[in-house]
Design brief:
543 residues; alpha/beta; FAD/NAD(P)-binding domain; D-Amino Acid Oxidase, Chain A, domain 2; Helicase, Ruva Protein, domain 3; 3 domains; 9-stranded mixed β-sheet; 8-stranded mixed β-sheet; 15 helices
Length: 543
């Protein structure tokens, strides 16, 4: 079969009630809130949706236990409320995860200078503000046997959440926004925010796919470009006060090791910075660092010192894994758009978002978003909508007795059974689709049922199928092969992926859309280039 990719509609000279610049998790949530509020909304992203800070985060949905130390009680409570809502509303993508706080008992050895009573009190408050806990943790004996036996450790259990693929969460919100009437274009660069008589009136844009430039008008403009906020202002020639103090956070990806904990581990590096060691996507994610970075965030990459810092922190806690530094598979980095706070230590800079109104800068109708995080994207969107004069009430509190531990798994099993039956594919493929697409997995099954080529796996040792790529291109705004394989169906983040997988996926997707061989190889090469710039795969890693 050969499907036709719909051409992108021209936006030249169109008028919108709201222009949202930046298609990360914050910008997408804001666009969704705007269109729900009745505004004709345009969401634009210079690269691909979720390709910036969103895809380079530690991928946890948390209340911010460490924020208690800085007395940011309001932020912790807001984050916990939003964590619970995400767990409730998107259970296939946001899952509860047990965390183990690991502290040396000899407090002079490290900077984790908390008494047991203070830690227990903080964790009790954390649980109460979140509405209680869902499950009782298992035995810690096996976990403790993995720790450095040269120290005596105290281990405390608490619960937070994990979104292994925030890229998928953004994709779902994109579909909701476009189905509600929003226009969403990726690979569309803002060249200039246009102002007249002290008011922002629109923007000049460049389509990075076609190379065409054009203008649109907008009554309200929201600069939600994350670490690019100041860059957008500067290129527009607007009066510039520095708003963002970019802070790079780097991560390393290791293979799972024997007896690796199923829980996430929260501890501190020798310099006192928090470190997370998290099971992720069949691998182990270790992060993160805090390094000032004012360069173009597009090129953010971990330094050798950061990689060594993370490795040494990991091996200092788990010295008997049998892994060596050569086992590091990937490294990646993103820039946090924290408020510019000269003189403040990075750890003390607030993680609470700020909505800056540029009316005082001679650009009424323009606001910029500073800060924010995965957990609070939806509450930020509601607050932004109110700033724009829209009605955005707080959701009804969903705190209630926790659902049975197998509640989400039962739902995923039901979706899996339906997908397997309708699409005539193996149960393991159906389960993989249900876990990433939730209820929309049934649309993918319907598509796959029509043609055998859509039921093919994207690569020979992967459970995800070509029909998911078709859904990404036709309904989730994916334009390039990289958009598909890194973000809509992010199989290329897995431990199995190789260049032969890339070629196989490109050929199978290309066959469905009628790509010739030159197009297949061009997309494959561009994908490999983008993947290398993002993940920095280690040539000496053992796959």
């Amino acid at each position: 079969m050969s499907l036709q990719i719909p051409a992108r509609a021209s936006l030249a000279d169109q008028s919108f009630d709201a222009l949202v610049i930046g298609g990360g998790i914050n910008g997408t949530a804001i666009a969704l809130q705007c269109v729900r509020g009745g505004l004709r909304t345009l969401l634009v992203e210079q690269h691909d949706f979720a390709s910036g800070t969103t895809s380079r985060a530690t991928r946890i949905i948390h209340g911010g236990l460490r924020y208690l130390e800085h007395a940011e009680i309001g932020l912790v409570r807001e984050s916990l409320r939003e964590r619970e809502r995400l767990l409730f509303q998107w259970p296939h993508l946001v899952r509860p995860l047990e965390f183990l706080l690991v502290a040396p008992k000899n407090t002079h050895e490290r900077h984790l200078l908390r008494t047991s009573m203070a830690i227990r009190t903080g964790l009790w408050l954390y649980r109460q503000w979140a509405g209680g806990r869902r499950h009782v943790p298992g035995s810690l004996r096996e976990f403790e046997s993995q720790l450095d036996s040269g120290h005596t450790w105290s281990v405390y259990s608490y619960e937070d959440g994990q979104c292994e693929f925030p890229e998928r969460l953004v994709a779902e919100w994109l579909v909701e926004a476009t189905e509600a009437g929003a226009v969403a274009h990726n690979h569309l660069q803002v060249l200039q925010i246009m102002c007249r008589e002290g008011r922002a009136i629109g923007a000049r844009l460049r389509d990075r796919v076609s190379g065409k430039e054009f203008s649109i008008s907008a009554k309200r403009i929201i600069n939600a470009s994350g670490p690019w906020v100041d860059f957008v202002m500067e290129t527009s020639g607007l009066p510039l006060r520095r708003l963002v103090g970019g802070v790079r956070g780097s991560h390393i990806i290791l293979p799972r090791f024997a007896n690796a904990p199923s829980q996430a581990v929260y501890t501190e590096a020798p310099d006192g910075r928090p470190i997370f060691i998290i099971p992720w996507n069949g691998q182990t994610l270790v992060g993160t660092t805090e390094v000032a970075d004012s360069d173009d965030p597009t090129h953010a990459a971990p330094s050798d010192d950061e990689i060594s810092y993370l490795w040494n922190s990991f091996v200092g806690l788990f010295p008997h894994t049998g892994l060596s530094k050569t086992d590091i598979r990937y490294t990646f980095a993103g820039v946090r758009p924290l408020p510019f706070s000269p003189g403040a230590s990075m750890g003390a800079v607030t993680r609470k978002h700020i909505i800056h109104d540029h009316a005082q800068d001679g650009a009424a109708g323009l606001i910029s978003i500073i800060g924010g995080k995965l957990t609070t994207a939806v509450s930020l969107a509601r607050e932004t909508a109110r700033k724009l004069g829209l009605h955005a009430p707080e959701p009804v509190n969903i705190f209630s007795p926790p659902s049975p531990a197998d509640g989400v798994e039962s739902t995923v099993r039901q979706w899996s059974d339906l997908v397997a039956h309708k699409a005539r594919i193996p149960q393991e493929n159906a389960k993989a689709i249900a876990e990433w697409h939730g209820a929309r997995a049934l649309c993918i099954a319907q598509s796959a049922a029509r043609d055998e080529s859509l039921r093919m796996p994207l690569c020979s040792h992967n459970h995800h199928i070509v029909a998911e790529a078709v859904e990404a291109i036709l309904h989730e705004c994916a334009v390039t092969l990289a958009d598909v394989l890194l973000r809509r169906v992010p199989v290329a983040l897995g431990d199995c992926w190789s260049e032969s997988c890339s070629l196989e996926a490109a050929q199978r997707i290309g066959a469905v859309f009628g790509w010739d061989q030159s197009k297949i190889f061009r997309e494959k090469e561009l994908f490999e280039e983008e993947r290398a710039k993002f993940l920095h795969p280690r040539k000496n890693a053992v796959s």
